[in-house]
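Before a computer can learn anything about folding, someone has to put a protein's shape into writing. The outcome of that step, for a single protein, is printed below:
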Amino acid sequence: MVDVEGLTKKYELRKTGDVIVGLDDVSFTVDEGEILGVIGKSGAGKSTLLQILRGIENFDSGRVVVDNVVLTPESSRDQFSKVQRKTAIHLQRSFALWGQSILHNVMRKVCSARTGLEDLPEHPAEYEDVKAEAMEIVDLVGLKDKYNYFYNILSGGEKQRVLLARQLAFKPRVLLLDEPATMSDPLTRREIMDTIKKIHEKLNLTIILVSHMPEVHEYLADRLIMLEDGKITYEGQTSEALRYFTQQIADPVPLEPVTSDREKILRLKNVWKKYRLLTSNELIQTIEMKNINFTIPKGVIMAMIGPTAKGKTVLIRLLSGIEKPDEGEVLVNVSGEFVDIAKYGRKSIIARQKIEVMHQEFGLMHNETVIDQFSYRLGLKSIKTVERALERAEELGITDLKLDVLYRLADLPEDEARALLQKMELSQDIFYELFPRFPESETRKIAKPVLNALDLSEEILNRHTYELSCGEEVRVSIALHMISKPEILLLDEPFGDLDPISLRSVLNSIKNLNREFNTTIIVVSHQLDAVEEISHEAVFIEAGITRWGEPKEVCEVFLERMRETEPIPEKRETEST
């Protein structure tokens, strides 16, 4: 079904002109109905390989055959289009869905397969025909009982299954899966794997499966190839390949011990927050996070775990000040004085300069170099530039209240911030006016110790975001949010796409940051092994704090709870800044 011979792909870095070899003389075959697993460290060439097999990426030399369609570097656009019609791809961290129901999302893809457009038909008979075909696919991925749920109320695992359903609408001969189980808790991951196995057994699809998770390959792959620096370094039985792969995982660095007498840096006092859980047309329930009280010492790494959409991200947004509690105080220690960042004004701006938040979307700009993004972030978060912004705002007639609103927007995910700026009838230029970029030479000096702690070379500053591997992207994003040396770092699902080797590297790097800069770190993650390794303490969040203690103990409570109840897909409707 698939035959790859001598496949080579090279990239040229735009800023330096350096050439990177993405794939180097790769050859393998996949039989019809076989599941071939592909494993390797971040940056090994796995995603590049899938994009070439999909027919959406050119290559420099070699030959690719997909269901008797031959591609070479000289092939016409028509040949690449033929491969695209025979394949479908599920991309990692790609949740590009319509803000409509599961059924309508799949119906639109059925229409696209028939007409090339995702417009729903207007004629009743044609509409019902499309609906019937889409419902069969929805049933196949195990979502028939939730067919009317909107995309933005779904859990991460359910979104992955909707994406699979949309790709199946093309009736592909070869299904390409790029990290289909990413950002999922253990039970949700099993549901996704069961769905893939069901699809394979019912449709006899040829599947090429890229995953960094050994358990995914153990459950699904008939055979495994391992990529390293663009080359196949092992091909054979899944269990043997995984044993060879996991031998490369580095030893963990020790976690810096903490004592109970440390100064307190962050406090939630009598905090209440209410939000509603909705399907497409009905209220499931209203959740109240009631009377939350806790204090976090300086220099602690604390992990938050719990079911999807039960309050973890809500708490991260409360702690960062980008969302207000309905009642209560969010207090940050500023030189011995606790400042309530739920209240707007000058004191809150100064307090929030000490906090950085990294969202699940990471926040890196695709076409920008790393050094440009660091310079921009320093312009926002350096205490010197914040003091200068307060003076400049006075000159422009901008009140402390309005400046604080703008300053909170800078910590929102990009799409959310852009929408709110448009609502305020402001352009992003206002940030550059108030917070000019740091000089590049000074930025490089400030970045050096942060890059060293994260085991990143200074050369990476010259790269664009799209030139980074997944593991590099995570560490660069952490570096971006550490460049101003915040006292508090909030990380929302930073580990989802990482292979075990890169994950250990990132975990060691975070422990190094904590030790060298005494940074207080709060991390949300579904990776329970990572939580146990990296954190001094953990909390189980389910509409509030239900357990606080030793990480291993709290992880066991979470797993037991997950066995008792099936997660309900949810949406959080709440006040924005």
Remarks:
- The chain has two domains: 2-246, 264-564.
- Residues 567-577 have pLDDT under 50 and may be disordered.
- The CA atoms of residues 226 and 232 lie 6 Å apart.
- The first helix runs from residue 46 to 54.
